[in-house]
Design brief:
The protein is mainly β. It contains one helix and six strands.
């Protein structure tokens, strides 16, 4: 199984390109992901992980993700190789995003809206018209 779940901060705004073959949008960005443990007396370390998002997900990322935001990405690891103009072989390991989420907490003064902060996700329970005001209203 090849599944990656990451949460980190964007190191730069997503960069958008289009493929030459069929003009498909691809957004690429990097996440700074903190390591889980800190050695005593050292600062927390982070890994910088390259992410690529294709088509509609790439469009979503390029439109709403900005440098410094905390985001969550679910995807798969992919490795590629290519030769440059001088014949030098290059290797890259990256995460191909399949899902992307906002992970920052809502800031003071932001407008409340029904915008779902997850690309392609089902609406959350809070976005429906049904609301229970207290436990006394429940039939059980």
């Amino acid at each position: 199984m090849n599944k990656v779940i990451l949460m980190g901060r964007l190191t730069r705004d997503p960069e958008v390109r289009y493929t030459q073959a069929n003009n498909t949008l691809v957004a690429s960005f990097s996440l700074a992901v903190n390591r889980r443990f800190v050695r005593q007396g050292e600062e927390r370390q982070a890994d910088f992980i390259n992410i690529v998002a294709w088509s509609k997900l790439g469009e979503f990322c390029s439109k709403y993700f900005k440098k410094g935001q905390q985001v969550g990405v679910i995807g798969r690891i992919q490795t590629r190789t290519w030769d440059d103009d001088q014949g030098q072989k290059h290797y890259i390991t990256e995460v191909v995003a399949e899902e992307a989420y906002f992970a920052d907490s809502k800031r003071e003064g932001e407008n409340s809206s029904n915008f779902d902060a997850t690309f392609g996700a089902m609406p959350t329970a809070g976005s429906s018209d049904f609301e229970v005001s207290s436990g006394d209203d429940l039939p059980f």
